[in-house]
Amino acid sequence: MSAGAIGNAFAAARRAGRAACAALAVAITLAAGGGAAIAAESAVILMYHRFGEDRYPSTNVTIAQFEAQIDHLVDGGYSVLPVPDILAALGEGRPLPDRTVGITVDDATRSTFEVAWPRLAEAGFPFSVFVSTDPVDEGHAGIMSWDELRRLVAAGVTIGNHSAAHRYMWQGDDDANRADLLRARRRLAEELGVDAALFAYPFGEWNAALRALAAELGFTAAFGQHSGVVAAHSDMLTLPRFALNENYGAIDRFRLIVDTLPLGARSVTPDDPIMTENPPTVSFTIEPPLPRREALACYASGGVAATLAHEEDGRVRIRFDRPFPPGRARLNCTAPAEAGRWRWFGLQLVAPRDS
Ligand SMILES: [Zn+2]
């Protein structure tokens, strides 16, 4: 990057205030040649739904939790960057500042507009909202109106596609899913003038066919709701996000997740989350290898015990002691990293009802 470009970044920072500081950090990192001490090739993406809506504890964070989380990001040396910028940097092999965080909010709830936006704007934090268009068209009381969404767009908020009808799409057929996603795309364009390049799977659930449809429709990235870190080696159409809610909103957990690094799990099998056998066998290779592979630990949901083995072919193989209950299942693997941080890999699985 040229000195002129850095000067422009400074000028932009003066014009835009704190919001541009993150962009400035990127400029400095790049100008320094991506020094190893501050450059990263990963980022943590956070996922919210509701703010201060205590009737929905599984998708809500309290206002006190949210304010504590923002304070930690402001004070803790994090670079909160627009999600499209983070993904572009990773895709092009450009370094990011260490401790880069992206903020996403699903469903376009009214508390996003009334509670979250003012606080994020004051902190100078960009964010992305994944919109399901049918509930907006139907004028649901708890969902933003198109007018409110236009105000967010005017303020620079990124809008993503979250389908039109917000169904369990992997259970539906391909033509219906295509029509639904194209309807959402058309409504976002008509109402907001937005060509949404990002997609978030409703309920965070996908299968191989739905992932292929996201690719066919030209989305540059698609997000689930499984825990983990977005890295240069990640599959851009099944990206993880850390979910925040009242149960998982405590500041100790927040401090832990925003500091996480990628585990480096590659060539993960199975590559379709919908189980064809239950229990499945999961395997992957960790690249670069862990300094102490015996420090790797994996935990499964649903009361299922996970046993991991480091095989001679370099693969980590994980077996489970019993079938998962029907529905969504999770596997999370962690290993300690430097400076008290953790490497993290999360895998989403779905046990069909008839398995
Ligand atoms: Zn949703």
Please outline what is shown here.
This protein has helices at 3-16, 21-31, 63-75, 83-91, 110-123, 133-137, 146-154, 174-192, 208-216, 251-258, and strands at 39-40, 42-48, 50-51, 60-61, 79-80, 96-97, 100-106, 128-131, 158-161, 198-200, 221-223, 230-231, 242-243, 261-262, 265-269, 282-286, 297-300, 306-310, 315-320, 327-336, 342-351. With 355 residues, it is α/β, with parallel strands linked by helices.
Looking at this structure, what is the CATH superfamily of the largest domain? Glycoside hydrolase/deacetylase
Number of strands: 21
Identify low-pLDDT runs: 1-37
Percent of residues in helices? 25-40%
Q: Sheet bearing the most strands, described?
A: 7 strands, mixed
Rg of Cα set = 20 Å
Question: What structural category do the secondary elements indicate?
Answer: alpha/beta
Please identify the oligomeric state. Answer: single chain
How widely separated are the two ends?
55 Å
How does this structure look, described?
The chain is an alpha/beta fold. The chain has 3 domains: 1-33, no CATH class; 37-260, TIM Barrel (Alpha-Beta Barrel), CATH 3.20.20.370; 265-351, Immunoglobulin-like, CATH 2.60.40.10. 31% of the residues lie in helices and 25% in strands. The strands form 6 sheets. Strands 2, 5, 7, 8, 9, 12 and 13 form a 7-stranded mixed beta sheet that branches. Strands 14-21-20-17 form a 4-stranded mixed beta sheet, with no helix packed on it. α1 packs antiparallel against α2.
